[in-house]
Sequence to fold (298 residues):
Amino acid sequence: MMAPACSRSLGVRDPPAEREHVSEQLDGHPLGLRVFADALPEEDRDQPRQFLDESFHVGALPEGASLNDKLRRLLVFYEKKLPVAQVRILGIVSLFRAPIADETVVRLVRGVFCEALPDDATLTTDLRRLQSRGILTREPIEGGQGSACHPILRDHFRAVLLGTGADTARRSADLLTGQRSEGRPQNVKEIEPVLLAIELLLDAGDFKAANALYKQRLRYGEVFQWIPALAEGLRCALAFVRDEKRREQCKQQLSPRAMSFYLNDVGLFATYSGHQELALRYYGERTISTAGCRMPLT
Fold:
């Protein structure tokens, strides 16, 4: 049976057989059911099966597709049904692994996107709607509650945000990092915006801007040892060189020496955090003899 939150609270007026079909097609996944119910137009609420089949046929979903493939297809369909402002809100929330304050969501939506958007009050209403429909969850943060989203939603709407262009990624990174503090960072929370900005810039293919943040805001990675934040250091350095495509981008946009530096930093932080096999592999993949030196990056 379809979850009560979808069939009653979200106003899906469907006979039991159709309820069962929709639930079965989405494996009873709570997020899938919430997204489906939110996308379902009023005129289709008595026949949701037809609407679900239509959404799955966008792009010809193959027979026997996995749940993740179904959810991804449903999200593509859902995204096209949403007002632009709500797509932008989901894009901003998707930048964060941790819950984010509502006022910060509205501020970033306003600052990141150059297109015409509703006023702050309307954006706040759109944010509340996504929360009330269960698309965004409410999670505790310092001083109250913040908005968060499921990892599947995060992956999709983050890609949508990045798809709007490299300038969007740079504006997002600028707003995330803000003003540099005077003293040494004392904990992971203080550097989290910089880590998010680097991740976003690398995903957008802007290795020069990401590299500049690593140099200037993370002091060539030494901040991770000061705090200490070794797992975060490993994840951050690895993002530059995690696969062949990233290594080639790093080498082309920065230099072979810079690529070797990041390979070395992965080995360093892997060693410090107890991942010896990973450390040996990345130390072994350094491409120039000076890679082991923690020299300034180019």
Remarks:
- The longest helix spans residues 256-272.
- The two ends are 59 Å apart (CA to CA).
